[in-house]
Amino acid sequence: MVPDPSLTIDATLGVVRRQLAAAGIDSAAVDARLLVREAIGASPTDLILCGGEPLGDAAAGRLAELLPQRLAREPMARILGRQEFFGLSFLLSPATLVPRPDTETLVETCLDLVRGGMLAGVGPSGEGLSFADIGTGSGAILVALLHALPGAHGVGIDLSTQALATAEANAAANGVDARCSFVATSYLEGIGGPFDFIVSNPPYIEAGVIDALEPEVAQHEPKLALDGGADGLDAYRAICKAAPSRLKPGGFLAVEIGFDQAETVSQLFDQAGFRDIALHRDLAGRARVVCGRL
Description:
Distance between the termini: 58 Å
Number of helices: 11
CATH topology of the largest domain: Rossmann fold
Oligomer: single chain
Largest sheet: 7 strands, mixed
Shape: elongated
Number of strands: 9
CATH class of the largest domain: Alpha Beta
Strand content: 15-25%
Order of helices and strands: HHHHHEEHEHEHEEHHEHEE
Number of domains: 2
């Protein structure tokens, strides 16, 4: 359906919301507001204040481009080309995952290590800190940590050069590019270190179930960033094998995990020689991060 430019903005919101809901999209009300806001170029406040005004030809044309994308189950963040994470804005590309709120638990875990004085020779603002982010993607974890720790330096690692280009752009946009570097490689191949900690949100979905995931993930997220092998653990095995030789004595490894992987990933940490292995839970109470000290 081509949006009617003579409808008011409020009426257009209702039309878009009903179309999204009819397509089975649970977040129809929120997505409708985001789509109409993007089409008219308005802030949240402007959207309320101008609700009685007609949509207009230009906004109707833009909405006609955006709405079919969401009806096809393309994630809102991909339609808009950006996503907020840890209070910062991140550009996206086809090679990067959409950063999710659950992953903020991983950032908070690392910040707690630094601010809690768990790393020898590292100040509370990251003075003297060096860390690596494996599978950096959009750079969300790396950039969020550097933004919160102005004394730190980090290395973003990814197999995808397109993802690294996106991460570099995000580092520059958020003012931390002078304190990070990027390397195209698999896991830690060719990376020396030593680092105070290594962090990763690796691919951890079992290969056989990816196509059965919700369309927003299965059809629109990069398979390279999802596919964890037959049992979802391939990346964890590689990281646990490589990380000890790249960490300083007493250094930490922290990884995000899937909903049913806490026990198996903790065992991999133990077998790799990590101690003080702990689980950290997200806001929903699910085990989201495994962290261990070398």
